[in-house]
TrEMBL record:
Keyword terms of this UniProt record: DNA damage, DNA repair, Magnesium, Metal-binding, Nucleotidyltransferase, Nucleus, Transferase
Record's protein name: DNA polymerase eta
Subcellular location: Nucleus
PANTHER family: DNA POLYMERASE ETA
EC number: 2.7.7.7
Keyword Magnesium annotated: yes
GO molecular function, one term: metal ion binding
GO terms of biological process kind: DNA repair; error-prone translesion synthesis; response to UV
UniProt cross-references to InterPro entries, sorted A to Z: DNA/RNA_pol_sf, DNA_pol_Y-fam_lit_finger_sf, DNA_pol_Y-fam_little_finger, DNA_polymerase_eta, Rev_trsase/Diguanyl_cyclase, UmuC
Domain of life: Eukaryota
Amino acid sequence: MPVARRETCDARVIAHVDMDCFYVQVEQRKQPSLRGLPTAVIQYNSYKGGALIAVSYEARRCGVKRSMRGDEAKEACPQIQLVQVPVARGKADLNSYRNAGSEVVSVLSHKGLCERASIDEVYLDLTHAAESMLMETPPECTQDFEEEVLKSHVLGLEIKDGSDAKEEVRKWLCRSDARYQDKLLACGAIIVSELRMQVLKETEFTCSAGIAHNKMLAKLASAMNKPAQQTVVPHSSVEQLLASLPIKKMKHLGGKLGSSLQSDLGVSTVGGLLQFSEEQLQQWYGINTGTWLWNIARGVNGEEVEGRLLPKSHGSGKTFPGPQALKTIDSVQYWLNQLCEELNERLHSDLDQNKRIAQTLTLHVRAYKIGDSDSHRKFPSKSCPLRYGSRKIQEDALILFQAGLRDFLGFNTFKVHGNENNNWGVTSLSVSASKIVSIPSGTHSIAKYFGGKGKFPSSSTSNQSVDVVINETVPSSSSGSENCTGMVPYDLQLQYLDDTGMKHSDACLDPQDPLNHLSSKADGLTEESILMSPSGSEDRMAHGEPRRVLLAKDLSPVSNISSLKAVGKKKRAAGKKENCSIINIFNNYHNSQSSLKLKVTNAHDVKISSALGSSSADDSYSTCNEDIDTNKGGCSVVIPQGREAWCSYHIDEIDPSIIDELPPEIQQEFRTWLRPQKRPSVAKPGSSITHYFLPDKSR
Ligand code: DCP
């Protein structure tokens, strides 16, 4: 659900920039001969000529719509040029569009805080730039304005018949008697027009923009005059704008909430909500939503522009409509493998280019059950800690799927073995990696990458570190506020989603589960319920803080450890050979280090910590007390840096194959350190992962 936030009293200048028919423009740049022609980009499948996903404005003028398929578009506009979206791994490859979006962002980010909101949308906070302009070169002292700014649409500005619209806009920009806020907006309009021209010059793409005093109004305005135009919302025109804005056009009101406002309150426009008091709206829709509705009726929206040029999450998805629905575990596994490979590539390029790592893997599925027409939104989404490496992501995604399928079908009817299935079908799969954190620049130490994650003074709060530790400590936990991809049509894989409300329930495993070979992993799952966004175009996944996280926060180190001992016993008794993640190893190393430093446990506990940590396949069983806030609790976890960090490991017992899991630069750093010192291996036969990377306490 939307979150009600107060607006600051300070005047702000916010712009929303939206690329015009973006995929078409990218294809037209690749093939300039298509410029000016009615063009559409179609999905790669050939059914009825493929689904249209982007339509040029020339084609729109001929009646072509995005809801059409290629064959229909040809009927409506015989001269239409249909370009197929690039394909990789049997699905749409959006990399060229994603990269084109990044080019635009790099131009737009020069003038103020810039938030990349989707593959082709950006918010800018231009308040400072506008204030400076007003101080140094106010519009009223400007003689010549660029044509582009004079073409602006200013809501509420009356252009009488026969009068020169550009001259009216010039007068509006230069009004000396305008309110301060509107003077700032005039400066914002000039800045945005310059930025849009710059985007055109550097990328060859046109875009449209809205300029207002908050994000909500700026977004509404950017869509009002397309393509290649901009719209300004002066304060005085807000009421009029909302008075005529249909409820369903407002972000978050496209779905059930909007329908309820229409049918239960009889309201058809956003302005229609003005007749209700805040208390009434709160009574009917809850405190937060009620206040949010009361605010939007007045055009109030305190959301900040987040300085973010990079995505909050990575996702890769594919839909399997109608007869293409997947009906066997094998076919699901095949497609999960494709999606995970793509996700892995993107994770690695994010690591290489931006020095960021993701911490949570989430699987979203849409499926149906035969005989249950209501089942298509009920497949629970599942998350687990993300392990780097294509194979590991694939394995984990399949485990998440199987756990979700078991819940979806109900324990009694679930059969995982065999491929025969007559009662379910999967119509959409998507995997996403979220909780992305930056690695501080200039550090190439594994200790900083993994052991110290969540503890970087500049990038994490104490709460974050608690979350991270809980992620590693408590089975099933993932952050309560992660962002991840929802189900999206047309393999739309780049998502920058807002935080949403919470809804969750515990994943509960039956020891008799036929999936018991998965149970240690499944035990580490977070179940998430799908909340479909009210807005048709913005399907979102709501994530909540799982109950276990809340419980875990309350656990004392000692109770934590004893519960872990029990888990450890169970796992050792099972004698399972489990996979090992390098991330776990380093986390466990540091966790055991911090346990020692914090002196919360006895030696036995520390031993358990090592044993559990190093034999665990999932991230869940390390004994760890790092949820004690290092800033507040008076106990610090010292993360060794650089060479010093490596020196505390037993090099003789390091399995070189584990090193392959590391990011390339870390591998290099590690091998450089390892080579001159590596002695002939003295690892005993049968020596297990339990012993790898234990700190050398003799040093
Ligand atoms: N897209 C997609 N599937 C959808 C919607 C959009 O793959 N259901 C892709 C193609 C679009 C791009 O995302 O080019 C941006 O989507 P927009 O909704 O912003 O639409 P356009 O940029 O194509 O057109 P407009 O000029 O109306 O914004």
